[in-house]
Specification:
alpha+beta; four-stranded antiparallel beta sheet; single chain
Length: 293
């Protein structure tokens, strides 16, 4: 019997442990170097197969843009595969928008993985990775299924093992448009790339690619344009002693412990009005890492 629906599919967010802008291509795209780590703050998607070829999205939470990455991913896979099938995609949006946590890209990756199965394509993951790169810079990471050192414009992934860790994550009310940050004339674009030698596991365990190393080159630009980013950083430093912006903002995270328990309880009652935040645990792999298959 053919598969008709897939429910309760997770689309986890990510944090950038550091983010270095190491150059810029002639076409204007920025070259990055950043360890991405998956966390358990996730959107939830439900997909139902349609036999009429139509693609429709249904927002179960906050309204999303009319033509978001999920619909672009579905259209691209439909076109490239030549399938006559369609789908209803319902999204329970829980990861805040405009946070630099990759929520939209993760949703698109989950759509690719789910439709590959729902439409009976069974494409190899490498083929879906290629499609992901055509949709958005962060999509290949989420399709890849593991924590990774991400380089280039997001297409070069080197899987890396990281010890489980807790992170306190805060998203102020303000959201930031990625294009404005990368287009800022004052953005540093020549940070020296980290030279990776030996195993990434050794690099990570030594701190060379993990928490506390490097910086987010986008953070000074984001703070200058959005004072709430700096306020969120100070808020986390007051409670946890450290902070760093993830991605292009405006979410900020703090290292909050390893092993089974965080070092402190997340002080949700102290969040300023309009802010959201929670304690998150890192994931060793994407919940759909075994797909396709």
């Amino acid at each position: 019997m053919s598969l008709r629906a897939l429910y309760d599919l997770p689309a986890p967010a990510k944090l950038n442990l550091f983010l270095h802008v190491v150059g810029r291509r002639a076409d204007g795209y920025h070259l990055l170097q950043s360890p991405f780590v998956l966390i358990d703050w996730a959107d939830v998607l439900h997909l139902e197969r349609r036999d009429d070829g139509r693609l429709q999205r249904h927002d179960l939470g906050p309204a999303l843009p009319a033509d978001d990455l999920c619909l672009r991913a579905a259209r691209l896979l439909q076109r490239e595969s030549g399938t006559t099938l369609g789908a209803d995609v319902s999204i329970d949006k829980r990861v805040p928008w405009g946070a630099g946590m990759g929520g939209g890209s993760s949703d698109a990756a989950t759509v690719l993985l789910a439709l590959d199965r729902l439409w009976g394509l069974r494409w190899p993951r490498a083929r879906l990775l290629d499609l992901g790169a055509r949709i958005g810079a962060d999509v290949p990471f989420f399709v890849g299924g593991t924590n990774a050192l991400v380089e280039g414009v997001g297409e070069r992934l080197t899987p890396m093992a990281l010890a489980p860790r807790w992170y306190a994550v805060v998203k102020p009310a303000a959201a930031i448009e990625t294009a404005g940050i990368f287009g800022a004339p004052e953005l540093v674009r020549d940070t020296e790339a980290v030279i990776v030698t030996g195993s990434l596991e050794h690099q990570a365990s030594s701190g060379r690619l993990a928490d506390g190393f490097g910086r987010n080159d986008l953070q000074p630009v984001a703070e200058a344009r959005c004072p709430e980013v700096a306020q969120a950083a100070r808020w986390l430093e007051r409670w946890f002693g450290n902070s760093r912006m993830t991605g292009s903002g405006s979410a900020v995270f703090a290292r909050a412990g390893m092993a089974d328990q965080p070092v402190a309880t997340f002080p949700a009652e102290a969040l300023p009005p309009g802010w959201v935040g929670r304690m998150c645990r890192s994931l060793s792999r994407h919940p759909l890492a075994d797909w396709p298959g």
